[in-house]
Amino acid sequence: MAVYNHFKGIPELPELPNLKKKRPKVMAIVDEDNCTGCQACVPFCPVDCIEPVPIEKYGSPIPPVQVRFDECIGCQVCARVCTKLTWDAIRIMKTDLFEELYQIKID
Ligand code: SF4
Ligand code: SF4
């Protein structure tokens, strides 16, 4: 009998967090209204730049997460994990557009 591999396509967990070396072409943006705060994506980020938003922002005991935009390397792993394992709450945006929309310069 064939056994379905539910984890097929889910990225590997990083062994140790790395650091950003160059400006990424794309970046991850969490849709905080759709994020359940499950934190499934957090340990998969290779540069460990996903964190819960401060409790005060929504007053919720399980707040959504956010990406520290200046550390994101645009690997898209978090979006794949969120889509595969949970909810599809992470958008990938071109860095040029991110800079234009948020008036923030990414190095
Ligand atoms: S996996 Fe998706 S829903 Fe869960 S915390 Fe991460 S972004 Fe939010
Ligand atoms: S795309 Fe997601 S997993 Fe990759 S560095 Fe950015 S926040 Fe981390």
Describe the structure.
- There is one protein chain.
- By secondary structure, this protein is of the alpha+beta class.
- The chain has a single domain (26-102), classed as Alpha-Beta Plaits, CATH 3.30.70.20.
- Helix content is 20%, strand content 15%.
- It has three helices and four strands.
- The strands form two sheets. A two-stranded antiparallel sheet has the order 1-4. Strands 2-3 form a two-stranded antiparallel sheet.
- The model has no long low-confidence stretch (mean pLDDT 92).
- The chain binds iron/sulfur cluster (2 copies).
- One iron/sulfur cluster (SF4) is lined by residues 30, 35-41, 64-65, 81-82, 86-87, 89-90.
Largest sheet: 2 strands, antiparallel
Instruction: Give the ligands present.
Output: iron/sulfur cluster
Number of domains: 1
Over all CA atoms, what is the radius of gyration? 15 Å
Q: What is the CATH C-level name?
A: Alpha Beta
Task: Give the low-confidence spans.
Answer: none
Question: What's the quaternary structure here?
Answer: single chain
Beta-strand residue percentage: 5-15%
Q: What class, by secondary structure content?
A: alpha+beta
What would the principal axes of the Cα set say about the shape?
globular
Calculate the mean pLDDT score and round it: 92
Order of helices and strands: EEHEHEH
| Total beta-strand segments | 4
Bin the helical content.
Answer: 10-25%
CATH topology: Alpha-Beta Plaits
Widest beta sheet: strand line-up: 1-4
- Summed up, the helix count is 3
